[in-house]
């Protein structure tokens, strides 16, 4: 099945810094989503982005489907951005959403 | 409000007991999913359903069972055959199932601890 790799696995930032999280996938995709898992475990939808670029406030995402990667940009990070960021994909077969192992982000005041 | 409701949020059970986790959605979504998350890990698919009275096994279905008698409901039973049931369980839904899956939305999760 499709493989999803996220990097880096862990990231520590000073408040106000910018960061880029990467998601590589091994096959073509019909669906790609970015999620933020908060300290209580809830998964918050950030972007539904099988291709192209989207922005939502301080966050933006770009998926280059032909090169099989997606990037999540966080600008001017805040302590509330801390948590785990997951990338998940649906391939062109009949498989539901497959998750990467996540990037754990810690933003320090 | 439209959304996905999971219950209970926390559950403690003795080894050897079956437990059932509830998942209800009022988004009028056709497809529903159950994922399991272990500490420090990503999510792994247990079962999914694209239509009432039909469901498919995911990557780690052994020791679990599901039913889909109503569009809104997709309960998960963790049976005594599941060797390591302590985990965080997440239910999700989407307007359609694969391969035309749109955006998935998740409930708040149920944390099961087996003593």
Give a quick summary of the entry.
The complex is a heterodimer of chains A (109) and B (115). Chain A is mainly β and 109 residues long.
Q: Quick one: how many beta strands of chain B?
A: 11
Helix proportion of chain A: under 10%
What is the molecular shape of chain B? globular
Oligomeric category? heterodimer
Q: What is the string of SSEs of chain A from the N terminus onward?
A: EEEEEEEEEEE
- Main sheet makeup of chain B: 7 strands, mixed
Number of helices of chain A: 0
- Gap between N and C termini of chain A, in Å? 41 Å
Could you describe the 3D structure shown?
The complex is a heterodimer of chains A (109) and B (115). The mean pLDDT of chain A is 95. Chain A is mainly β and 109 residues long. In chain A, strands 2, 4, 5, 9, 10 and 11 form a 6-stranded mixed sheet that branches. In chain A, strands 1-3-8-7-6 form a 5-stranded antiparallel sheet, with no helix packed on it. Chain A contains no helices and 11 strands. Chain A has strands at 4-7, 10-14, 19-25, 29-37, 43-48, 52-56, 59-64, 69-74, 83-91, 98-99, 103-108. Chain B is mostly beta strands. Chain B has no helices and 11 strands. Chain B has strands at 4-7, 10-13, 19-25, 31-37, 43-51, 54-57, 64-66, 76-78, 87-94, 105-106, 110-114. In chain B, the strands form 2 sheets. In chain B, strands 2, 4, 5, 6, 9, 10 and 11 form a 7-stranded mixed sheet that branches. A 4-stranded antiparallel sheet of chain B has the order 1-3-8-7, with no helix packed on it. In chain B, a hairpin with a 2-residue loop joins β5 and β6. Chain A binds chain B through residues 30-31, 33, 35, 40-43, 45, 48, 86, 88, 90-102, and chain B through 31, 33, 35, 37, 41-45, 48, 58, 88, 90, 92, 97-106, 108-109, 111.
């Amino acid at each position: 099945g499709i493989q999803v790799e996220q990097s880096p696995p862990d990231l520590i930032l000073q408040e106000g810094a910018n960061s880029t999280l990467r998601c590589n996938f091994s096959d073509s995709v019909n669906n790609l989503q970015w999620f933020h898992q908060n300290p209580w475990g809830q998964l918050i939808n950030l972007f539904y982005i099988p291709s192209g670029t989207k922005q939502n406030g301080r966050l933006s995402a770009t998926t280059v489907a032909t090169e099989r990667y997606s990037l999540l940009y966080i600008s001017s990070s805040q302590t509330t951005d801390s948590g785990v960021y997951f990338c998940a994909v649906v391939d062109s077969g009949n498989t539901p959403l497959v998750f990467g192992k996540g990037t754990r982000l810690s933003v320090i005041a | 409000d439209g959304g996905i409701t999971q219950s209970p949020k926390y559950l403690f059970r003795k080894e050897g007991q079956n437990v059932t986790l509830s998942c209800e959605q009022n988004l009028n979504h056709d497809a529903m999913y159950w994922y399991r998350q272990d500490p420090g890990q990503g999510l792994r698919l247990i079962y999914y359903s694209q239509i009432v009275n039909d469901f498919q096994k995911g990557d780690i279905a052994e020791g679990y069972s599901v039913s889909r008698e109503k569009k809104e409901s997709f309960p998960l039973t963790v049976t005594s055959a599941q060797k390591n049931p302590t985990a965080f369980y997440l239910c999700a839904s989407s307007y359609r199932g694969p391969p035309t899956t749109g955006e998935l939305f998740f409930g708040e999760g149920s944390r099961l601890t087996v003593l």
